[in-house]
Amino acid sequence: MQDESMNAYKTYVKVGACGRVVLEHLPFPKGALVEVLVVDQRTQPGEVENWRALFKEIQALPQSQAMTDTEIAKEIENYRSGR
Known about the structure:
With 83 residues, this protein is mainly alpha-helical. Strands 1-2 form a two-stranded antiparallel ribbon. The model has no long low-confidence stretch (mean pLDDT 88). The chain is built from three helices and two strands.
């Protein structure tokens, strides 16, 4: 996934048996200086439960209770279209 405004490119690769990661077919010119950030995608113990507890807490807020399905759909649409 490439973000033209930030010249960012996101991809997923697996760490090889020897502990190496190889990035291929990048959309940048040869010799370009790029920043590499490596993030472990595995979930940590209790992480899913913590997210569920947070969502439940947010859904219990008075502001959340007052939102209609139409308003939620509009918020999602605005977010996806970048508004």
